[in-house]
Amino acid sequence: MTSTATKRDADFIPVEFLIVGASIAGLSSAIALRRAGHKVTVFDMTNPFEATPIDAGCRLPPNSTKMYYRWGMEERLHTCSVKSTGTLFAQYDSGSVVGAHEWQDDVLEETGGDFLLIHYTDIRRILAECAEEHGATLRYGAEHQVARITAHRSRPSVMLASGEVVRADVVVGADGYLLAGWFTRAWMMEAHGQEDTKTPTGMQMFNVIVREADIVHQVEDKEFLEKMRTSGKVITWYGSKYGAFGYPVAATTGEPAFTLYVYAPLEGEGDGFHAWKSSRDALLHSIKDADPRLVQLAQHATDVSAIPVVDHPMLEDWVHPDGRVICIGEAAHPTPVGSIYAFGMSTGDAAVLGRLFTHLHRHEQIDSFLSAVQEIRESRVENVMKASAGNIFAVSLPPGMAEARDRQLAERAEKGIRGLAGGQTSEQMMETIESVFGYDPEDEADNWWVEWGLMQERAQRWAISDAVPEVEVEEAEVVS
């Protein structure tokens, strides 16, 4: 790994962090904080080097890969991922392709990263390896599951399922919200008196892996299959109340595979809020009226999970009122399942946290830095979520809107327009991509330090100097 440590202030002091959850946010934070020079321990009930219960493929946007490249993971990521070259838009029922978008090299160069398609097991494993190589301690297994967190003004603590109590200077809650048993988010909301106004949408997303070897002789449209295998494009099927994404990944065994995200109405499985292991039959029932090629892919699904699509509120306060516990990533600001923005938001939180703590030289700064994480990231997350609200569920449009989208994409295809957003010029599209994917969270943390952090430090030092009483020295009596 060719990564180097982050440049620190000369009077830097290291402190101890405990991270609850070996998630993308948790492991990315471990790397960023170790690069800054702090002691880090990560706790999780699952092994970060192995598959999770709802594993499948995921899409790493440029604002995530940019950070990971900077932290020394570029070669490792390229070894087990597929570089996305764009998106094809197809009708859900017929499969007719009515539009396309292609990533241009110069556009990606502006963002500083790549758009990668990768298995979740692989990205989590790479982050775990990198965290350990940087010196973080990873403690995983049932006995290392965090059962309780105690906030404190100077030494917060966690109690593990084994009964062991571990104390540190800061606790970071990065255990998300999807899987039952992960609790930091609910605990933080209760502490601040925030109501968990989660709202079921009546939709679910099937998370599916299909091995290429199982379908290469089964899918009748060989040209379509070859396009999925070699083009690096995400196929998007969209329709009324139904939709899907499909793209190539490398299976955890190293063999080629495909990931499918299939959106369909929720029909009574699970508790309506948490993910569960589903079945191929349930998947096929949900897509019985879909493009026959999508159905043929689904007929050979080997791993099928289902996740309810629920609207979750952002945390109003990310830091515990009793001190030095912070929530980040999906625990602080849940994104809709399958969202392309989830990874970028989690990586950004981690990068800001690590960068701010390179400037630590007094323990009294800890509270200010934790508050600054929310100050820097909250508006950014809100803006991206608002900007993405119109396209995250573009695959499952309400009746009437799907037909309008068909006409819009068909007209653009006839005119040779190959962009993501109708009506935008190339210059406007570049600005949109740069604002979302070209954003650099470490730069934002540096800007905060220059504009506010240094000012706070100067004010603190002046206050200390003003508080020191002047000592009058009496002139000694001279005895003759």
Could you list the spans in which at least 5 consecutive residues all have pLDDT below 50?
Answer: 390-402, 412-425, 473-480
Through-space gap between termini: 77 Å
- What's the overall average pLDDT, rounded? 83
Instruction: Count up the helices.
Output: 15
Structural class category: alpha/beta
How would you describe the shape?
Answer: globular
Q: How much helical structure, as a percent, in the residues? A: 25-40%
Beta-strand segment tally? 20
Strand content: 15-25%
**Nearest-angstrom radius of gyration?**
25 Å
Largest β-sheet summary: 9 strands, mixed
Descriptive notes:
This protein is an alpha/beta fold and 480 residues long. 37% of the residues lie in helices and 23% in strands. The protein has 15 helices and 20 strands. It has helices at 24-36, 62-70, 74-79, 105-111, 120-133, 184-192, 212-215, 222-230, 280-286, 292-298, 342-356, 365-388, 401-415, 426-437, 441-467; strands at 16-20, 39-44, 57-60, 81-83, 86-91, 97-102, 116-119, 137-140, 146-150, 157-160, 165-167, 170-173, 199-211, 233-240, 243-250, 256-265, 276-277, 303-311, 325-327, 396-397. Strands 5, 6, 13, 14, 15, 16, 17, 18 and 20 form a 9-stranded mixed sheet that branches. It has a 5-stranded parallel sheet with strand order 8-2-1-12-19, with helices on both faces. A hairpin with a 5-residue loop joins strand 15 and strand 16 (256-265). Helix 1 packs parallel to helix 5 and helix 1 packs parallel to helix 11 (342-356). The longest helix has 27 residues, at 441-467. The protein is globular, with a radius of gyration of 25 Å. The termini are far apart.
